[in-house]
Write a structure and sequence with these properties.
Helices cover 78% and strands 0% of the residues. With 142 residues, it is mostly helical. Helix 1 packs antiparallel against helix 3, helix 1 runs antiparallel to helix 5 and helix 4 packs antiparallel against helix 5. The longest helix is centred in the N-terminal third of the chain and has 26 residues. 22% of the residues are buried.
């Protein structure tokens, strides 16, 4: 992958990590001003808030961890693209059902933008690790 393409991918991964950190805070504290601005319901049992925030935070941590790796794992980036796209689609479906505000869709649009940029980086990159590359490195190590 050209250096500027790889640099862009790593920057986008860091942005995704930050986006997830902020989202985790919103889900953890939906009654806060920011949670209410995002249109989240304030009265949510703590177990659901905590589990949702944990899952979103884990994805964010994974994006940051991936940005720090010497070789970016292509399969893991694809998993992130699927996760971010799925989150956006879910919010749109809930909005169409009347369960989420338009602001929620606007905020979640950041997920689909990040997914699109990550996918574009994948399509342009060739130096990222594939399963075959890992197997070759493992055989060479052994």
């Amino acid at each position: 992958m050209p250096m500027n393409q790889e640099s862009l991918l790593r920057r986008v991964l860091w942005v995704a990590a930050g986006f997830n950190l902020l989202a985790a805070l919103l889900f953890a504290f939906p009654a806060s001003f920011a949670g209410q601005f995002a249109g989240l319901p304030a009265a949510v049992p703590v177990v659901y808030r905590a589990m949702t925030a944990l899952l979103v935070l884990l994805f964010g941590g994974a994006y940051g961890w991936l940005a720090l790796q010497s070789v970016v794992d292509r399969a893991f980036v694809i998993f992130g693209v699927i996760g971010k796209t799925s989150a956006f689609v879910l919010i749109v479906v809930l909005w169409l059902a009347g369960a989420v505000s338009g602001r929620g869709v606007l905020i979640a649009s950041g997920d689909v933008v990040l997914a699109a940029v990550l996918l574009a980086c994948l399509r342009g990159g060739r130096r990222m690790a594939s399963t075959r590359d890992k197997a070759t490195r493992l055989r060479a190590f052994l």
